[in-house]
Amino acid sequence: MTIASRSLIAALAIAGLATAGSSALAAGGNEHPPAQKWTFSGPFGTYDRAQLQRGFKVYKEVCAACHGLEKVSFRNLAEAGGPGFTAGQVKTLAADYKIKDGPNESGDMFERPGRPSDRFPRPFANDEAAKASNNGAVPPDFSVIAKARTYERGFPMWAIDIVTQYQEQGVDYITGLMTGYVAPPAGVKVEDGLHWNTYFPGNKIAMANPLIGLFDDSGKASDPGFYTDGTPVTREQVARDISAFLMWAAEPKLEERKQIGAKVMLWLILLAGLLYFTKKRIWSRLEGAH
Amino acid sequence: MAEHHSSYVPSTGIERWLDARLPIIRLMHDSAVSYPVPRNLNYFWTFGAILMFMLVAQLVTGIVLAMHYTPHVDFAFNSVESIMRDVNYGWLLRYMHANGASMFFIAVYVHIARGMYYGSYKAPREVLWILGVVIFLLMMATAFMGYVLPWGQMSFWGATVITNLFSAVPVVGEAIVTWLWGGYSVDNPTLNRFFSLHYLLPFMIFGVVILHVWALHHVGQNNPAGVEVKNVAKDTMPFTPFATVKDLFAMVVFMIFFAWFVFYQPNFLGHADNYIPADPLKTPAHIVPEWYFLPFYGILRAIPDKLGGVIAMFASIAVLAFLPWLDTSKVKSGRYRPTFRIFFWIFVVVTILLGYTGSQPTDKVVLSLGGRTILDMVGFAQILTVMYFAYFFVALPLLGLFEKPKAVPASIADSVLGDSAAAHK
Amino acid sequence: MADQSMSEPNRRDFLLLATGAAGAVAAGGAVWPLISQMMPDASTIAAGAPVEVDLAPIGEGKAITLKWRGKPIFVRHRTKAEIESSRKEDSLITIDPEADSKRVKSFEGKAQDQWIVVYGSCTHLGCVPTSFAGDFGGWYCPCHGSHYDNAGRIRRGPAPKNLFIPDYAFLSGSKIRIG
C-alpha cells in the first residue's frame, strides 16, 4: 500500500510535469476571459434574485429578438432557486406572449396568450427563417448556452479547478464576450458582416455588439433608468447580469443541487467515520492485527 | 476456494426445507460470509466491491432515466433537458449516471493497475483475468453508446468517428459501417439501436461479472504478497465481517469522491460541446472522446495509416488478455520485483501521457528548439505507443528471465506478521 | 480462521448500531429520488393547471367533450324536459342513490340545473361512455353495458358509482373553471 501509493503519486507527478511542460511550450491561442465573482459559485452558492431579474430584463429586451429560450417555461421564473418572480407576475408576463396553438374545430392553427406552463416561443418559425434574417447564421438558442460555452483552462488550472470547484467558464466567457467588442488591432482586416471581439474564438464574430443600443458612443447608458432597482447601468453590469440569468436558465436546479450536496457530503463523511471505527473494532479481533 | 467446504448450517425448519430444494442461502453464505479472504489485502483490493457498487448504481439510475428519455433525433436532446428541469430529482439521476460512468472507469483503471502490479493475472487466475478484460471491453462499448444518447454535438460526432473506424476493414468496411448506422450516416436508426444496446449491454456485463466472481471464488484472491493460501486458518479470515466492513468503508469514501463531482462539478468530466444539439452539417472544432478513452484514442491517432491505427488501438486493449503468458516471471507481486516496479510505473506514466496526446490537437508542438519543431503531438504519441507495446512485448517477457527478485515471504501469515513487526519498529 | 471472540461488547454494540442506523438513513435517502422520479413531473403538473371553459357556445340539448389532465370531461347543457325527467326519477336510483340537485352547482346562490359536468370515464373500468345513448337518455358505456342518465347517474349495468364530478366552479353565468 505505502510503496504503491507513494509510487502512484510520483507517477502522477511525473505525468503532470510532463504535460505541464509540453502545454507551456505549446501555449497560445485566444485570450482567456477574466474570472468574475459570482454569487452562485462555490459549494454554498445561490443565485442573486435581483441580478437574475435584471438579467431577464436584458434577455427580454435585447437578446430575445434573435435568441430563443425554448427549454425554459414561463413558470420556471417563479420556481424556487430562480429569479423569484411571483406567480401573478409570471401569469401577466406569459400573457404578453403569443403562443401558437391548435388546431381549432375548423382545423386552423391560432394564436392565444401564453400561460405559465408554456415554454418561451421561438423568435423565428424555423432555422431557415432564422438564417434568412441573420446573414445566413442561426442565432443559437440560449436555454443551455452557459453550459455549452467554455474556454480551455490548460494544465495545471483544470486540475486545480477540481479542488476550487471553478466551473464558471461559460458565464465568464459570456461576460467577456459582451464586453469584448473593441476595435481590431492595427492592420487586421475584418470582413463585412463580422465584428472584432477579444474573447470570441478566432476573434471574428457575426453578431454585432448586442448591447450597443443600451449605451451611447461615450459608453454612457442611453437610459439610466433601464434597471428599476437602482443598479447603475454600465456595460460590465449588464454583461454580468445577462450571464447570470443565462447560467440560471441552463442550470435552474443549481441551488437545490448544492444544498442537497452539502447534506449528502456531511452524511457520507459521518458514515465513513463510523465505518472506519467499526472496521477497526472488528479487525481488532484478528490475531496479529494492529 | 475449491477445497473450501460449506460451513452453512440451516438453523430453522424453513431454511432446512429450502436448503434441500434450492441451496441459495448456502450459496450466499459460502460466497459472501464464510468465503476465506487472505488477511493481508490492502485497500486496492476494495475496488472490486466499489466496482460492484458502481455497476448497480449505473443500472439503477439508467433504468430510471430510461423511463424519461426518448430515443429519437428530434426529441433526445429535449428529453434529457426535461429530465434536468422537470422530472423530480431528474438532475440528480442524470448527473449521477453521467459522472457514474467516469467513476466506473476510475475504479476499473485502479482495479486493472492493481492486478497488473501484483501479478493477479498469473496462474491460476488467467481465466479470471480474461473475464475481466471482457468486462472492460463491454464497459467501453456501453459507455460509448451511452454518450451518444443525449444527442449533442459530441454525441453525434463521436458516434460518427468511432463507427467510421470500422470502415478501415478491407473490402467489407463500408458495408459494416452502413450496417452499424442503419442508413447512410449516423441518424435516427443509429440512435435507436444504440439506446437498445446501451440498455442491454450492462446486463451482459452483470452476467460476465458473475462469472468473474465465480472464477475468483474458485481460485481464491491474489494478495499483496503474491503467495497462495497455504493454511486457511492462519492465512485467511472470513469474508464477513472482516472484508465486508472494509469494503463498505472504502465504498463510502469512494462515494464522497463521486458526490463531489455530482453535486459540485457535475459537468467537469463532460464536454461543453455536448450541450449543443447535434448538427450533422457542422463538426466541432476539436473532437475529443471522454477522458477514459483518451489513451486508446492517442494510440489510434499515433499511427498515420487508417487500418494500422485501428488495429493498434484494438491491439492495445486486446494485449491485456495475453498478459498471463507475456509475463514470464515466477514471482507474482511487484513488491518483490524491484526492476519490474520501475517498468510498471513507467507504463502508468506512458498511458497517462498517451491520454494527454489524445486530448490535444495533432499539430500541436510538444518540443521546439530555436523555432524549429522537433516533436509534434503525433510524434510524441508515436514514441509513447512504442513504449506502451514494449512494456508487454519486451519488458515483461525479458524481465522474468533477467530480473533478480527479492525474497518472497513463505506464507501470507508471515507477510502480515512481518508487516506489523515493521510497523511497530 | 482467526479468533472471533469479542471484547467490550457494549461499545461495539453501540458503534455497530450507530453505523447501521447511519447506513440505513443513507440508503433511504438514496432510494427516495428513485421513487419520487415516477411522480408527475413539473411540466405535467403545470399543464394540469385549472382551465376555464366558456359555456356560451354550447346550445341547449348539446354537449361537448374536453380533455383535461389527459381525461375526457363531458359538459352537457340539459333541456328543461331532461332536467324534469331526471328529477322525477330521483327515487328510482338504486345503485348509487343521489338526488339530481346534488349533481349540479350553483352560481351566486342560483342553481345551474342545466349544466352537468362529469368525468367522461365509466366508473366500472374506465372506458369512455357514448353521449346521448343508452336506455336512460344519458350515456352508455359500450365496453360492459353500463347505462347512465342525463345527470350521469348509473342506472343499469356493472358500474358501481355515478360518473364522477370534477372540481369546478362557476365564474359567471356562462363560464366555469375546472380544477
Structure description:
The complex is a heterotrimer of chains A (290), B (425) and C (179). Helix content of chain A is 42%, strand content 4%. In chain A, helix 2 (49-63) crosses helix 8 and helix 7 runs antiparallel to helix 8. By secondary structure, chain A is mostly helical. Chain A contains 9 helices and 4 strands. The model of chain A is unreliable at 17-29 (pLDDT under 50). Chain A has 3 domains: 1-30; 34-72 and 119-252, Cytochrome Bc1 Complex, Chain D, domain 2; 255-284. Chain A has helices at 2-25, 49-63, 87-95, 127-132, 145-148, 157-164, 169-179, 235-250, 254-283, and strands at residues 98-101, 110-113, 195-196, 204-205. With 425 residues, chain B is mostly helical. Helix content of chain B is 63%, strand content 4%. In chain B, the strands form 2 sheets. In chain B, strands 1-2 form a two-stranded antiparallel sheet. Chain B starts with 12 loop residues before the first helix and ends with a helix. With 179 residues, chain C is α+β, with helices and mostly antiparallel strands. Chain C has 2 domains: 2-36; 44-178, Rieske [2Fe-2S] iron-sulphur domain (Rieske Iron-sulfur Protein). In chain C, 24% of the residues lie in helices and 27% in strands. In chain C, a hairpin with a 5-residue loop joins strand 7 (130-131) and strand 8. The radius of gyration of chain C is 27 Å and the shape is elongated. Chains in contact: A-B, A-C, B-C.
